[in-house]
Fold this sequence. Notes:
This protein is of the alpha+beta class and 438 residues long. The chain has helices at residues 2-18, 23-27, 34-42, 67-73, 102-108, 116-122, 133-140, 158-161, 174-181, 186-210, 216-229, 292-310, 318-331, 404-411, and strands at 51-56, 81-87, 90-97, 126-129, 146-150, 169-172, 240-243, 264-269, 272-273, 276-277, 280-285, 364-367, 370-373, 378-381, 384-389, 392-395, 416-417, 436-437. It folds into 2 domains: 26-181, Creatine Amidinohydrolase, Chain A, domain 1, CATH 3.40.350.10; 186-431, Alpha-Beta Complex (Creatine Amidinohydrolase). The strands form 6 sheets. A 6-stranded mixed β-sheet has the order 4-3-2-1-5-6. Strands 7-8-11 form a 3-stranded antiparallel β-sheet. A 3-stranded antiparallel β-sheet has the order 12-15-16.
Amino acid sequence: MRWAEEGLRILLLTLFLLSPGLSWIQASEPIPPATELQQRRAQIGLVESHEILLVAAGGTEGEEVIRDYEYLTGLRSWGGVLILRRDSGAVVSTLFLPAKDPGFEMWNGPRAFPGEESRELTGIDTVLPFASLMDWTLKNKDQIKTVYLAKPGSQKQSLWSNMFSKETEFLSASRLIHSHRQIKSDWEVGQLKRAIERTHEGLKAGAFNAKSSLYEYEVEAAIEGQFRRQGSPAPGFPSIVGSGPRSCILHWQENNGELDRDGVLLMDVGARSGAYTADITRTIPVSGKWNERQLQIYAVVLEAQREGIAAVKPGATQRDVDSAARRVIRKAGFGNYFPHGTSHHVGMNVHDVGPGRALLPGMVITVEPGIYIPEENIGIRIEDMVLVTEDGCEVLSAAIPKSAKAMEAWCKGAEVVEPDLKKPTPKKSDSESPQRLR
Ligand SMILES: [Mn+2]
């Protein structure tokens, strides 16, 4: 038995020592397969060989790695520089990474470093030590007329322009990258669905905890604790948890108010899956039971959202979606109580990047109408995430219940399984749609 134990110990130790350092980086949250990363880089619209795309991850410790870098390399560790260039038709990629640094790793843990492993992980043609970036630019700068640059806001452009000739033109890389980031691949939709599942559990926990909580932050903690428990690296944006008068503050983030026992509680939150965030809002009655007025307003918002979602299809604009939702709210007499737009793109950023244009398959937007009546301390918003498909849309968050009854059930720790509210309710069961508790 001793021998077996010792043998196992040696085996485990050997496996540990042989395991590639980078597997730690992948362990927590998935990064895109190399083939997907290659596809993303290949579609970047560089035309001439004298143009390059230069993406700087972020240069100093603690500075957040820019999402454009993560989108094109899959890497989250700072200090890298990606250069793309078109050469006889193909996009050639070169990545410069900080050298392996045991001192850095002692404090911060492993990160990607130049070598075969990083090349395999990212599918990048050539991975070089950061120190050779200077040589690369010296060798190539005379042929480079245009640099499309993506960098952290805190970095000065001169940091990069000084490395090239005076005549080289520097342009923002947003135009080249963001139109692609706006269209989500199947892999990205998978990540968003995972983030939504985590958010589902968080909201459920939040609703259930409202009864036993005194303050908004207790509900916030229940929600975010549930996110973290499922592996979400961090909330995708500061959680909005507002009760009573604060349910009418659109981006309330202090979450330090007392719960209004007879009022509503609005929870606008999003867990992450890797780099991708969800963005979902549900509103519940703190007491666990709606009063008549709250129920009346809730029904209008829900109907407005249904109409908004029904308007999501290729070729439609966000304005069309907004008009469809707004029409319902205006008709019900609450036109002055809906002060924000109905939709925004969502992906790596909660308000995701991309040009303003008509909807295309693969885009993911929110549909989130609301009615806010400060004089009555009632703010109700319902928000879901919708994928534009070839012939309409798919509500990615359809599994998260949202009927008035389902919100009451959540407060009791139960969950109602609902039919997809996007589809028109059958006329006969108008008020009582088939629902069952699980
Ligand atoms: Mn939103």
